[in-house]
Write a structure and sequence with these properties.
The protein is of the alpha+beta class. The chain is built from 1 helix and 6 strands; from the N terminus they run ββββββα. The strands form 2 sheets. It has a 3-stranded antiparallel sheet with strand order 4-1-6, with helices on one face. The N and C termini lie far apart (98 Å). It is a single-pass membrane protein; Single-pass type I membrane protein.
């Protein structure tokens, strides 16, 4: 079984993740990660529990995209037709392509948000520079005008 995840938005883009077997034993844990993959070999049948935790920054909501994959194992005594084996192999490959596409979509969203934020900062920095430039020009004109004024003392 494989669980892949990526935090797409919110806060510092980091979460805690852990995976437990049907008896509640911890099989894997990842702390403060923005993306991750955890693969295990399921030795028991049952319901496996996986959890995403946002305890360290509960103020910020997080958007998490995740996929869970399990391989269906066929016992050695079962006879599997070659076409069925190929279909399972193709289905597994198609699931991998789908996961990569979802990962790329989340990553593109993150990069787009970063680019828009940077663009906004550059815009306001340019506005501030223009205001400072006009203030300096106004001050220079005033100063030079007063410098060339003829002051008469009577």
């Amino acid at each position: 079984m494989t669980v892949t995840y990526q935090v797409g938005g919110g806060g510092h883009l980091d979460i805690d993740f852990w995976l437990a077997d049907p008896e509640g034993r911890l099989l894997g844990k990842q702390v403060k990660q923005s993306t991750g993959t955890l693969s295990i070999t399921a030795e028991k049948n049952g319901r496996f529990e996986y959890c995403f935790s946002n305890q360290m920054s509960a103020i910020a909501d997080k958007i998490v995209s995740f996929n869970v994959h399990g391989i269906i194992y066929v016992g050695e005594d079962d006879v599997v037709a070659p076409i069925e084996r190929e279909i399972r192999l193709l289905a597994h490959g198609l699931a991998a392509v789908k996961d990569e596409q979802e990962y790329i979509v989340v990553r593109e969203k993150t990069h787009r948000n970063t680019a828009e934020s940077t663009n906004d900062r550059v815009k306001w920095w340019s506005v501030l520079q223009a205001v400072v430039l006009f203030a300096v020009v106004g001050w220079q004109v005033y100063y030079l005008k007063s410098f060339f004024e003829v002051k008469r003392v009577i």
